[in-house]
Write a structure and sequence with these properties.
Strand content: under 5%
Largest sheet: none
Order of helices and strands: HH
Distance between the termini: 29 Å
Oligomer: single chain
Number of helices: 2
Radius of gyration: 19 Å
Structural class: mainly alpha
Shape: flat
Number of strands: 0
Helix content: 40-55%
Length: about 80
């Protein structure tokens, strides 16, 4: 990732005049609630249960970085199934 990303600390995000280096638009979050079909709800619940047991297994491991990365992937996958 270091080849693709440039990390900055808070003191590096402003230029000498105090303006931000990059002008970003304000963040907009839009939530869309949907009704799942019965089959869709079953699939969602199955995936949720499997991810819960996988997360429980991962918490027994020592590597916290791996745990955090795996949990993020599981949440992403669950959101993609909605």
């Amino acid at each position: 990732m270091s080849r693709l990303m440039l990390r900055r600390v808070k003191t590096q995000v402003y230029d000498d005049s105090g303006r931000p280096l990059v002008q970003l638009p304000t963040k907009t979050i839009t939530l869309c609630e949907v009704e799942l079909t019965e089959a869709g709800r079953k699939l969602y619940n199955t995936i949720e249960e499997r991810m819960g047991s996988a997360a429980a297994t991962l918490t027994r491991r020592q590597d916290q970085k791996e745990l955090v990365a795996c949990v993020y992937v599981m949440i992403l996958r669950l959101r993609q199934r909605e």
